[in-house]
Amino acid sequence: MKRLHIQVKGVVQGVGFRPFVYNLAKKLNLTGFVTNTSKGVTIEIEGEKVSEFIEKLKNEPPPLAKIYSIETKELPLNNYKDFEIIESIDDAGFTHVSEDVSICAHCLMELFDPSDRRYLYPFINCTNCGPRYTITTKVPYDRPNTTMAVFKMCPECMREYKDPSNRRFHAQPNACPVCGPQVSLLVKTKEGAKEIENPIKEAIRFIKEGKILAIRGLGGFHLCCDAKNPESIENLRKRKKRSNKPFALMSPDIESIEKFCFVSEEEKKILTSPMRPIVLLRKRTDCLLPDLLAPNNSYLGFMLPYTPLHYLLFYYPEDTFLSFRGSQCSEESLKIMRRFFADAQNDIGKVEILQSLKLPQNDIKRTSAHFEALVMTSGNISEEPIITKNEEVLEKLYNVADAFLLHNREIFMRIDDSVVRELNGKIYFIRRARGFVPKSISLKEELPEVLGAGADLKNTFTLIKSNYAIMSQHIGDMENLETLQFYEEVLKNLKSVYRIEPIALGHDLHPLYYSTQWAKEHAQKRRLQSFALQHHYCHVASIMAEYGLEELFGIAFDGTGYGTDGTIWGSEFLYCTIQNFQRLAHFKPISLPGGENAIKECSRITLSLIDDAFGEDLELIKKLPLTKVLSEEKIRQILRLKKLKQFSPLSSGLGRLFDGVSSLIGVCHYNTFEAEAAIALESLIDSGTEFSEKACYDFNFIENYSKEEILRSDQNDRKQITVDYTPMIKQIIDDFLNGKTVATVSWKFHNTIIKIIMQLSLYFKEKYGFDHVGLSGGVFQNAYLIKESIKVLKKIGLKPLIHLNFPSNDACISLGQAYIVAKRIKN
User: Fold this and answer.
1) DSSP readout, 248-317?
2) Where are the alpha helices (DSSP H) in 689-769?
3) Which residues are catalytic?
4) What angle, rounded to 10 degrees, do the helices at 535-547 and 813-826 form?
5) What is the pLDDT of residues 444-472, one digit of tens each?
6) Which domains does the chain have, with CATH numbers?
7) pLDDT digits (tens, 9 = 90+) for 541-560
8) Pairing label, strands 504-508, 450-452
């Protein structure tokens, strides 16, 4: 006989952990109690099979639980009479909040079972699925601390909620059509918005008629239309004022997605995971979807349904379905269920359900859905956060949507869909949000409580608590009041949930960033120590944080970042420590005629590149594609502007070189969204193409700085290498004028960048003994560049370190800031 006090920390609330503990204790004839606390889950267990209990606790937790630590302490016997679940305790600690997860297989089966009391109910959920982070107002995670508190459970729901043997035991969003949230459909008329009956069935009809719907979902609104209807897509672009930025898509199953894109086994696993992110997939050459969904882009972003409402939009029955249970389970019912579960590789309960339904293992002809693909793009005004409230969507999107599919379950924390791509069998983040936030990452040591304020583009912030880094969801670009309010709203929430009060913060070096100005003001008001940290240093430091390193040789490639010399950086080879960094190499700076205007008008950068290589050669310029978008007089104006240094800042940002080359060969002359020209350039490279050293352009390494540059440099004791790509520009023009395809030019350009990475990394490895290299920055979201760079670095004996838990773009900056600040304070 033993009695143990057990403290379990991790994601252990709202995931069926207490029922699991209760049932395990009962099975092993153990007595005691289990309770939620603000630190996690506390268990006292007494009996003969305590060791077996601990073993199963570690190795067989509920599917959604993530155990970070289990602490045990032996106590004198107490002679408990039974095992029970007791009231939650708020003991001023902190616990990890679960992420929102997709509907599970059990709930999906019930959703389409006419004999079930939740048949076609859009808010069906259990402890294995449904909303978590978006409805949690504070911890412990109990119903009164969620937005479900206003819905009083009916006797039947309460019975499930209190029954430890039921999978809805303490499922905080538990509800049914009698007592839970409801959907409604408002349609625009001449007299105003009018509510109509049969909301889901009518919503489907509207979409089929080519209408645009605003649909309230898990973390905010989507704007939805039929992805196969070009007119609807064009209307959505016009109304939302969204030029070429790709739209996210949702399909009912993998089979539908495979009609439009290539889907590998690894990509299938990501698509069908409980997180249900948007996955970037290579378009098929015979893809029949309109090009307007993602112009000049060889990838489409697809996701599978993740809420009951999504499934209902695809499968709401024309007629009543037959029951799926027992003798009533017909062959047609089997076909329907086969379709639902064929893709659910990671869905909880799939195997059990397949067995109970006795579904045949051979492939059955699938039942058709209402749509093969729907546009599901964020419901917001351009550059503003996603809208969450019914009254706000009617005000802001009234002229965008034709109808509004609403519900009355409040969204406490807004959150966008996550966007990822597959890289070497793992998730590689583009945007980290729903399904992954607020999951923390474990650091290698306990650190002080600090805040990383983030950058201005693709902003996130990061808080450190104990040995955990907690990054916010994607906030967006810090350029308006609405985004700042969203930032402060999330910061207040995560500080409260995780019981964090930062003693210091880190922010970007750029004095004009909104995030910098906010951070300085916030630090002054709260009397916090603040650190101004260089942008690319923080890119590399974010990898140091993920791998628990004190120093790292890293490469940070992006478009923009304020340098210590006052110029714009973005092609950095850095040696970083916790205390400082050294700039070892970078690309030759490009003059940006007109400053910010050149970032949007890529043709300006192209003219700058040509002028650097050939001088003012108008005859040559006339042979190039940019004359289709620029008049001769405009070209002369830009070249004159380039000579005025006060209006044409220097930038070594590699993203600007991608922009310039894209326009140079006529691929994209204007960025209507960030990195559009670079994405279009990458999209030209054929799938399956690999790096070849023979297919590269020339370049030079220059070690000698001018006196002026040496004086400007903050590393006077070390010669920095400058990469001169002028020979490459000349050869690109030769290739283009000699009839080489733009796809070949793009491939050779990418190969040249990879060769530069390889040669400089090898040089620094031999000179300084580096054996690891970190790769960070938005440019490394280029699929070809990151995959082939990893290969060549391994070939020369270096271990490439890439981001595992966060995006490589500016979203990771806040992690680097927080890590540097916390480590400096601790040290």
Assistant:
1) EEE-SSHHHHTTTB---HHHHHHHTSTT--EEEEEBPTT--S-GGGSTT-SEEEEE---SHHHHHHHH--
2) 707-712, 726-737, 742-768
3) 18, 36
4) 70
5) 999 999 999 999 999 999 999 999 999 99
6) 2-85 (3.30.70.100), 97-439 (3.90.870.30), 585-801 (3.30.420.40)
7) 999 999 999 999 999 999 99
8) parallel
